[in-house]
Amino acid sequence: MGRAFEFRKARKMKRWSAMAKTFTRIGKDIVMAVKEGGGNPESNARLRAVIQNAKAANMPKDNVERAIKKASDKDTANFKEVLFEGYAPHGIAILIETATDNNNRTVANIRSYFNKCNGTMGTQGSVEFMFDHTCNFRIPAEGRDVEELELEMIDFGVEEIFADEDGIMMYAPFESFGAIQKELEHRGIEILSSGFERIPQVTKELTEDQVADVEKLLEKIEEDDDVMNVYHTMQE
């Protein structure tokens, strides 16, 4: 198994178990997708992907439809995607994806978390290069041969593919998302969920006490409503 498999396994054991947080994130994704490409999933590939993810997270259909309708209102504020970078104690690089309607508030909050937990907020590009920006797709495993599927999808950018208890996972570079989505839809293969992740190229092992120091900062960051995803180089 490759790095994507190990990364996913570690993250599944960790955070984002709070359903309310998940629904908030999906709601913001819907707003950004609708503002970018309109409220019709048939003509908006990004919105189709978000709706699939909402279904996978067991978000009620009424909630999704309500969010799309609200996002279509011109008075609804759009969210801007902003990336923050920095270091936790013990040299652990942290990459933070946010979606905010008030950048000043988000910057101030993120900076305060680093300051309170003995971290250092970095400049743009200071740690992003330490992570591979990937896209992923999950499809049903029934009746499919993973090796055969890998050979078929390699031309569309898929670099790693594996089966787990949730189905078949495919990982590829960030830029391959559109081509893979289009090919899966063309083949009539159901996309259970899809998304983007940043996989650390190298991780660092810490002592139990050092892990606790880093976790303190990660928890503060992840509790922030503007934060969508947090990635780090600490070995899990």
UniProtKB/TrEMBL annotation:
InterPro entries hit by this protein: Integrase-like_N (IPR017856), TACO1_YebC-like_2nd/3rd_dom (IPR048300), TACO1_YebC_N (IPR049083), Transcrip_reg_TACO1-like (IPR002876), Transcrip_reg_TACO1-like_dom3 (IPR026564), YebC-like (IPR029072)
Q: Where in this chain does the record put each TACO1/YebC-like second and third domain? A: 79-234
- Which Pfam families does the UniProt record give? TACO1_YebC_N, Transcrip_reg
Query: Which protein are we looking at?
Result: Probable transcriptional regulatory protein AAEO56_02510
Enumerate the GO terms in the molecular function aspect. DNA binding
**Which superkingdom is the protein from?**
Bacteria
Where in or outside the cell?
Cytoplasm
* HAMAP family given in the database record: Transcrip_reg_TACO1 (MF_00693)
Q: Residues of the signal sequence? A: none
Q: Where is the TACO1/YebC-like N-terminal domain?
A: 4-73
Annotated family: Belongs to the TACO1 family.
UniProt keyword list: Cytoplasm, DNA-binding, Transcription, Transcription regulation
